[in-house]
Amino acid sequence: MTVAIKSAAPGANLGEAPLLLLLKLRTFIALFAVVIFFSFAAHNFLSIENLLIMSRHVALNAFLAIGMTFVIVAGGIDLSVGSIVGLSGMIAGGLILNGIPLGSSYTLYLSVPEVIGVALLSGVAVGAVNGLLITRLNVAPFIATLGTLYIARGAALLSSGGETFPNLTGNPDFGTTGFPILGSSSILGIPLTIWLLVVVGAFAAYLAARTPLGRQIYAIGSNERAAQLSGVRVNRVKMFVYMFSGFCAAIVGLIISSELVASHPLSGETFELNAIAAAVLGGTSMSGGRGKIGGTIIGAFVIGILSDGLVMMGVSSFWQTVIKGVVIVAAVVVDQIQRRVQQRFALQKQAATGA
C-alpha cells in the first residue's frame, strides 16, 4: 500500500504542475493574447501615439484596481469608487471656478495644490464613511458601498445642478492656474499620470509585501476571527483599506478633470467594474486573503487594452460592458479552479512526503 502511494503521487504532481503554472500565469497569457489579437484586428494599434493614449487609460484603471485590491484582499468590496471619481472631480472644478463663498462679499480661492488636496481628502472621507458603516454599524460591504455610490453621485450632481464645470484653466488673478498640468504634462516623454502610477504602485506593493499592516490585511481576509484573536486591530485595518481605495479613486477623478479641463458629475460611471475586473484578473481572490499589486497592474493592462482595442474595432459600448462582465465571471471561475488544483496538489505532496 505504501509503495502504491509513493508511485502514484509523483505522477499526479507532474501532471498538475504544468496546469497550476498555467493558471498562475493566466494574466500574462491574457495580456499577450489581447496584444497579439488587436495588433492584427485594429489598425495602428501599436503606433506610438495610440500606445501613449492607452497608457493613460491603463493608469486610470490601475489606480482604482490598486485600491480595490486591498479592499478585496481584506474580504470586502467597494462599489463606490466610480462615484468618488465623479465627486472629487466636481469638487476640484467647483473650487477652481467658484471658490468658497464667505458671506455675501468675499470668496476664498485656493491654489491648485490646495484644490488637489481637498479633492483627495473628499475621496478619503467617503472611504472613511464606508469603513465606519462596515466596522461600527456592521453593514455588509456590498450594501454600505452601494449606498455611498448613490450618495456620492448625488452629491456630485447637486454641486452643479447636473451641469459641467468647464474651462478649468483657472484665473491668474486668483492664483488658480495650472490644473491642466496634472493630466497633460510629461516627464522624459512619459505622461505624468504614468509616473504617479509608478509611485502609488510601488508604495502599495511595498505596503502589501513588506509591512506589518500589509500582513494584517492578508490575515483579515484569510480568517478575520483568527486575526482578531491574534491581536490585529481589525476595524482600524478595514478603515484604512476603504480610505485608501477612496484616495485612489480621487486621484482618478482629478486626472480625468485635468485631462478634459472640465469636470462632469457623471464621470467614473461603471469604473468599479473595471477595477474589480482588473483586480480579479490579476489574481486577487474574491474570497479574500490572496492577491498581489503586480498582478493587479497587469490585469489593469489587460482591461485597458481590451477596452481601447474594442473601441478601435468599432464595437458597441453595450457589448463592451457585456464583455467586461464575462471577463469578471471567467476570472472568478479560473480563480476557483486554481484554488482546487492548489489544494489537491498540496494534499498529494503531503501524502507523498508522509509516505
Automatic annotation (TrEMBL):
It is an enzyme of class 3 (hydrolase). GO terms for molecular function: hydrolase activity; transmembrane transporter activity. It holds the Pfam family BPD_transp_2. The keyword Cell division does not apply. GO terms for cellular component: plasma membrane. The chain crosses the membrane at residues 28-46, 58-77, 83-103, 115-134, 187-209, 239-258, 293-311. Its EC number is 3.6.3.17. It is a multi-pass membrane protein. It comes from the Bacteria. The keyword Transmembrane helix applies. It is found in: Cell membrane. Keywords: Cell inner membrane, Cell membrane, Hydrolase, Membrane, Transmembrane, Transmembrane helix, Transport. PANTHER family: ABC TRANSPORTER PERMEASE PROTEIN YPHD-RELATED (PTHR32196:SF21), ABC TRANSPORTER PERMEASE PROTEIN YPHD-RELATED-RELATED (PTHR32196). This is Monosaccharide-transporting ATPase.
